[in-house]
């Protein structure tokens, strides 16, 4: 029986979040939350979500606040702390602790939510660490700012994506990009709130504060953790990966060859394979679960 995509709504911290849900046909091994990067939508996780369900996991790919079909924040709060609060609210509505799988922005939110609140049974960071490379972050910001005026055609949007990442192994297609854009007044605009770029916590002036906050959260993580890094990433360097492993000594690390920062788009198949290996070896239930299995920084 083919895996069905189920559109659902979840309660965040003062906002309604839209998600795609995939349920396994067999006994469920657990719940995986899939969190996208800044400027993306839940659709970037579709192939991973289906593959997880095929392998016994319930997967929920969530549009972050201000992205895709989720609500925009009335106060324009798109800092990592707000995204983390949304994850805490979502986890509170589930019937078991989820596995948190976050790329870039979604990974930082996952790290903060896990470090501060211990909401998950495992943590997977996709090309994000507390120590991020300023040059790579600036490139992302520049790309996002370049699209604020919209595009005449979908093909123009595709050209912009290819120019940003010309070495992507599997170039995006126009029809795939359509899910991430909306037609308004004859022009195509990315489907996210532009206030995200200018929100004070996301500016360069707060870089040191953001890093210190992330490092403190990482030190508090007690669950199985995996870093999946794009081998060609300009955001997470080899030194950044080593730094994370020092902050979370029990963490594991794999590189995805041929992939850049947006690993889930560059090589989704390899990402899914490494993720499944980790889930089945380190996370899948092998015994009756009790609350003590989910250690948090508040319980030593």
Automatic annotation (TrEMBL):
A GO MF term: hydrolase activity
UniProt keyword annotations, A-Z: Hydrolase
Domain AB hydrolase-1: 31-264
Transmembrane residue ranges: none
The protein's name: Possible hydrolase
